[in-house]
């Protein structure tokens, strides 16, 4: 039996999460290009986040946009696929992926903003029958977990490698992350059976571009990017 | 230009990687799972050369909304595709038909199908599609698609062969050898892959 999530309506909100893997030391230039691209006609949807990686895969930008319905997402995907300068990042790109996601039904409302300044994205590839099981394991324990610290959201993939789950957490510092994760373990999060549904896990820590609705702030961005790119 | 001229039909090309020696049982499970489901089944194929133990399912949907709704329902099932116990992994991108390629599902010309996967450099799809449209008439694939959402920009095309000898014979004059040329040159390509599949007994494309 499928999980209790309602069927996907044609006008349901969908999310497009793109990974832009860049040549080394091109993050600042790529963010500038994205900022301009977002002002143009080719960028449909609502920008949720534009983040750059500081731990995990290096030289990666995550761009997250939301769309009202599959038709809008499809049109944006077609426009982007046929663009000779996707996201306005020019020759900075090494590899590009973009996939459609649906928010987990019990994840709660998406925050419009978040102070961050760090965002942890946990990207899980699941067993073929693992999506429904993982959601059912998470659902009863989630309120206790979120009482410790909020998450941004969780969403599952509708394209690309599947089943796949993204879940995203804002942190004021990496020390806070460790503290909360230790506390979560004490209340039984993640559920003991959950890891059995997971085939592969990737964890990336991001910081936000200054124009990112989630986490954006003008302070010290140039220095932060240099530090992220030049750290040994 | 291409974007505005494209029709709304979308294709579900699902590739399943399965445990060795489970293909006959998996095909029967998938056949049963497909009964009464939305979308038009075009092909169900299994790999013979390349990465073996792959099952390819190709379905047509009126538009992206229909396709994504069916996919969402399938992924949330207790046993998606009926093959969870055999599964090693799955990919399911969102595909649109290559311009100028006959509608998939035309009369049978297999039973072997060569799946060619051309991974493109970012930003090169429009150039590749335009070059494909300018290519000299000649052999045409049975179906061809490009990705709108995926882990990488890609074009795939299925070439039918009546026998192994037809694909790899004494002369390669009839082989689709100049794919790079058809796609506007090697500078548009990041990687290429070719694999040979066979049609399942219940596959409409034979």
UniProtKB/TrEMBL annotation, chain A:
Residues 119-213 form the NIPSNAP domain. SUPFAM superfamilies: Dimeric alpha+beta barrel (SSF54909). It holds the Pfam family NIPSNAP. Coiled coil: none annotated. It comes from the Bacteria. This is NIPSNAP family protein.
TrEMBL record, chain B:
This is NIPSNAP domain-containing protein. InterPro entries: Dimeric_a/b-barrel (IPR011008), NIPSNAP (IPR012577). It comes from the Bacteria. It comes from Bosea caraganae. It holds the Pfam family NIPSNAP. Residues 16-77 form the NIPSNAP domain.
């Amino acid at each position: 039996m499928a999980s209790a999530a309602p069927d996907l309506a044609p006008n349901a909100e969908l999310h497009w999460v793109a990974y832009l893997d860049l040549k080394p030391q091109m993050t600042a230039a790529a963010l500038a290009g994205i900022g301009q691209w977002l002002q143009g006609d080719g960028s449909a949807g609502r920008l949720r986040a534009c983040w750059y990686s500081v731990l995990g895969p290096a030289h990666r930008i995550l761009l997250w946009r939301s769309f009202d319905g599959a038709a809008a997402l499809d049109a944006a995907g077609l426009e982007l696929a046929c663009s000779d300068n996707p996201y306005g990042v020019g020759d900075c790109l090494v590899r590009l992926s973009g996939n459609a996601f649906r928010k987990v039904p019990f994840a709660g409302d998406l925050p419009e903003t978040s102070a961050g300044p760090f965002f942890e994205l946990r990207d899980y590839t699941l067993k073929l029958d693992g999506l429904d099981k993982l959601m059912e394991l998470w659902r009863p324990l989630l309120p206790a977990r979120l009482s410790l610290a909020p998450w941004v959201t969780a969403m599952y993939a509708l394209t690309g490698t599947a089943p796949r789950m993204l879940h995203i957490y804002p942190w004021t510092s990496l020390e806070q992350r460790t503290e909360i994760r230790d506390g979560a373990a004490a209340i039984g999060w993640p559920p003991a059976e959950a890891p059995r549904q997971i085939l592969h896990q990737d964890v990336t820590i991001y910081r936000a571009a200054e124009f990112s609705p989630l986490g954006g702030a003008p302070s010290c961005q140039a220095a932060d990017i240099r530090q992220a790119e030049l750290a040994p | 230009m291409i974007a505005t001229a494209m029709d709304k039909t979308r294709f579900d090309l699902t590739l399943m990687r399965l445990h060795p020696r489970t293909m006959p049982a998996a095909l029967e499970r998938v056949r049963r799972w497909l009964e009464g489901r939305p979308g038009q089944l075009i092909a169900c194929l299994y790999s013979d050369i390349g990465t073996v133990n792959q099952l390819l399912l190709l379905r047509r949907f009126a538009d992206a909304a229909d396709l994504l709704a069916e996919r969402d329902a399938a992924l949330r099932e207790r046993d998606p595709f009926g093959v969870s116990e055999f599964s090693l992994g799955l990919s399911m991108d969102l595909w649109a038909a290559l311009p100028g390629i006959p509608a998939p599902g035309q009369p049978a010309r297999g039973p072997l199908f060569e799946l060619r996967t051309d991974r493109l450099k970012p930003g090169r799809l429009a150039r590749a599609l335009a070059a494909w449209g300018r290519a000299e008439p000649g052999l045409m694939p049975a179906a061809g698609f490009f990705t709108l959402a995926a882990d990488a920009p890609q074009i795939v095309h299925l070439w039918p062969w009546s026998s192994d000898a037809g694909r790899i014979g004494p002369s390669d004059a009839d082989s689709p050898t100049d794919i790079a040329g058809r796609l506007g040159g090697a500078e548009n390509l990041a990687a290429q892959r070719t694999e040979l599949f066979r049609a399942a007994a219940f596959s409409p494309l034979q």
